[in-house]
Design a protein that fits this description.
By secondary structure, the chain is mainly beta. It has a single domain, classed as Sandwich (Immunoglobulin-like). The chain contains no helices and 7 strands. It starts with 5 loop residues before the first strand and ends with a strand.
């Protein structure tokens, strides 16, 4: 299975230790509900959607999101977190077909 493209974005771009930042995670995913028909074959397109997203910072879970099939294609998930020193932010998602992938971003506060 090929790795899906994904992106972690932190705002503001420059932050200090102890500051609360906005973390957004976007993943290229079809998010098929299983209720849409292929225009050419008239067959139902099999369901394939993200079911769970976990944000971790230095191995500690920040938040877990349970997801349903009604989200848009290429969804964006957003949370807020307090920066507690330098570390690694990891976002892990699981989809309805059992695919599990993770994206990692190194965090380095200024000052």
């Amino acid at each position: 299975m090929a790795k899906r493209k994904s992106l972690i974005k932190i705002k503001p771009k420059s932050f200090t230790d102890g500051e609360v930042v906005k973390v957004s995670f976007m993943v290229m995913h079809p998010m098929e509900t299983g209720m849409r028909k292929d225009k050419k074959t008239k067959e139902l397109i099999p369901a394939e959607y993200i079911t769970k997203v976990v944000f971790e910072y230095n191995g500690k879970v920040i938040t877990t999101m349970k997801v349903w099939e009604s989200l848009s294609v290429n969804p964006v998930f957003t949370t807020y977190m307090k920066i507690d020193g330098a570390g690694v932010l990891k976002v892990i998602f699981t989809d309805s077909k059992g695919e599990v992938q993770e994206t990692i971003e190194k965090i380095k506060p200024k000052g």
